[in-house]
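Hi everyone, sorry if this is the wrong subforum. Our group has a chain we'd like a structural model of before ordering constructs, and none of us has done structure prediction before. Sequence below.
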Amino acid sequence: VYDETIHPQLYFVCGLAAGSIAAVVTQPADVIKTHMQTDSKKYKRIMSTVLQIYQVRRDTNH
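Answer:
Right subforum, don't worry. Here is the predicted structure as tokens:
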């Protein structure tokens, strides 16, 4: 509901905050899902996928 007593900048900041939080929360799950979809023979289970991604990132300093 649009309230004319609230400044448009506040709507912008609230939308920016909501979008940022949503991206931070969903991005790790999306990375796991993408790995599992692109190489289903290598990445069979969620936990093993998480560990493999972590090991690769740790070993390459990313």
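For your construct planning: The mean pLDDT is 92. The radius of gyration is 19 Å.
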